[in-house]
Amino acid sequence: MISAGFAVVALVATGCGSTTTDSPPAATSATASSGEFPRTIASGSDGGTVTIDAMPRSIVSLSPTATETLYAVGAGEQVAAVDDQSDYPADAPKTGLSAFTPSLEAIVAYDPDLVITSTDLGLVTSTLAEAGIPTLLVPAATSLDDAYSQIERVADATGHDADGDAVVAQMRSRIDAAVASVPDRDEPLTYFHELDDTLYTVSSASFVGQIYGLFGLTSIADGSGAGDYPQLSAESVITADPDIVFLADAQCCGVTAESVAARPGWGSMTAVRDGRIFPMDEDLSSRWGPRIADQVEAVAAVVQQIPM
After folding, report:
1. Torsion over CA of 216, 222, 226 and 232, rounded to 10 degrees?
2. Pick from 141, 180, 182, 189: which is nearest to 292 by CA?
3. For tag attachment on the chain, is the N or C end more exposed, with fewer CB atoms within 10 Å?
4. For the segment 210-234, what is each residue's pLDDT rounded down to a tens digit?
5. What is the pTM of this model?
6. DSSP string of the chain?
7. Contacts of residue 3, Cβ cutoff 8 Å, sequence gap at least 6
8. Average pLDDT score, the chain
9. What is the DSSP string of 175-242?
10. What confidence category does residue 46 fall into, taking pLDDT thresholds of 50, 70 and 90?
11. Between 122 and 16, where is the model more confident?
12. How far apart are CA 139 and CA 121, in angstroms?
């Protein structure tokens, strides 16, 4: 299974291991930018909110993206525990907590005054609320603007409003610079982004696809009619003949350019023939936090290598 990020959330229904929308406001309280508590923060994507009475001192993060965001906005010292998939930064207090099979007792044992998760925990969420423990839901982002909004919401929820604004401003600047570093092409390049060796991939409408789209890249999965994270056949990939193959399964599954080239029929593809198979950091490819800028810069570096 690929790392616990938006790709896992999107693919879990298909057994593997989104179009741009308007993002909710960063906060709904009048005091959210003043550093005062209590404050009410937008939670989830359906208009929900969570009220936080005081600046959190013991935060439990059940989302790798939220963990990265907490540390990026300066809330790291407030984090008491993070889930078993949170591996960045390295000094985050990683535990055996699971966002997919959550244990109410295990969460409460850390005496949290704020829980942050990317998935709706259902009964656990409502039970935490009954116990007076606010839960902030930051689901898989559907666009860059949505990701920026979530970073600002996490910052607001933890009392680091200005830091959140600064992180987003820096991300915007780095992303703009990366995009500007790659000249426009007369003909857009096509790509196949491999999520795993069963050939799940992304469409241009997915979050990752939108990042590729910043450089004019087009997914060969577009028009497949199977949603933002479709599964393709080997024959359809070979027939589409992508200009680039991105591997998001190199770290988890040991897939290499050599093993891809050795697949039956794949040696005839342009990307294989011209040496355009690029392993990508699977965490950067599956999380929607502050390191999005790193992912954009990595894509820019790839596109810069391909002759006009």
Report:
1. -100
2. 141
3. C
4. 999 999 999 999 988 778 999 999 9
5. 0.86
6. ---SSHHHHHHGGGT------PPPPS--STTTTTT-SSEEEEETTTTEEEEE-S--SSEEEE-HHHHHHHHHTT-GGGEEEE-TT--SSTTS-B-S--SSS--HHHHHTT--SEEEESS--THHHHHHHHTT--EEE-PPPSSHHHHHHHHHHHHHHTT-HHHHHHHHHHHHHHHHHHHHTS---SS--EEEEESSTT-B---TTSHHHHHHHTTT-EETTTTSSS-SS-B--HHHHHHH--SEEEES-HHHH---HHHHHTSTTGGGSHHHHTT-EEE--HHHHH--STTHHHHHHHHHHHHHTS--
7. 64, 85, 252, 282, 283, 286, 287
8. 88
9. HHHHHHTS---SS--EEEEESSTT-B---TTSHHHHHHHTTT-EETTTTSSS-SS-B--HHHHHHH--
10. confident
11. 122
12. 11
For residues 93 and 293, what is the distance between their CA atoms, to the nearest angstrom? 24
Backbone angles phi, psi at 223, to 5 degrees: 85, 5
Dump pLDDT digits (tens) for 247-285: 999 999 999 999 999 999 999 999 999 999 999 999 998
Q: Cβ(246)–Cβ(193) under 8 Å?
A: yes
State both tokens at 184. Answer: 């426009």
Q: Angle between the 161-180 and 144-157 helix axes, to the nearest 10 degrees?
A: 160
Question: Parallel, antiparallel, or unpaired for β 48-52 and 39-43?
Answer: antiparallel
> Positive or negative, the Cα torsion across 181, 185, 188, 193?
negative
Give strand pairing partners of 231.
Answer: 200
What is the Cα–Cα distance from 124 to 277, expressed in whole angstroms? Answer: 43
